[in-house]
Amino acid sequence: MDMEVKQLRNTVVVKLDGEMDMLMAEKLKKDIDQRLLNKPIANLIIDMEKVTFIDSSGLGAIIGIYKKINAVGGGIAMLGTQPHVKKVLVFSGIDKLVNIYSNECDDIMDEFR
User: Fold this and answer.
1) Tens digits of pLDDT across the chain (113 residues)
2) How do beta strands 99-101 and 75-79 pair?
């Protein structure tokens, strides 16, 4: 799985590509943890358009990151989840913590204003 991360002020955008398994979950958690130590993150946007699979370690990473960002008053949004990945997110209850959007739209930024 590939991961591209960009940060603009207090917003981080992560583009994931491939399977969100144990290896990618650890990579994502470490990157976000490091960024939280260096600069405040108020908003995290995870582009899931190219994610083909997510397992329990991926779900755990998202929940852990949510807790850390929520603790500093921030929020998380997910974009472009494939139907089978979105089904896992909904069944796990993550959709109650994280806003999930089918694609990029201006409404997402309203969420963080």
Assistant:
1) 789 999 888 899 999 999 999 999 999 999 998 888 887 788 999 999 999 999 999 999 999 999 999 998 899 999 999 999 999 999 999 999 999 987 655 455 555 44
2) parallel
Which CATH number applies to 2-111: 3.30.750.24, 3.10.25.10, 3.90.1150.10, 1.20.1260.110? 3.30.750.24
Global pTM reads 0.85
Task: Supply the DSSP symbol for 42.
Answer: -
Q: Which residue has the tokens 């207090």?
A: 10
Q: What is the DSSP letter of 31?
A: H
Domain ranges of the chain: 2-111
Q: Tokens at residue 43, please? A: 């908003």
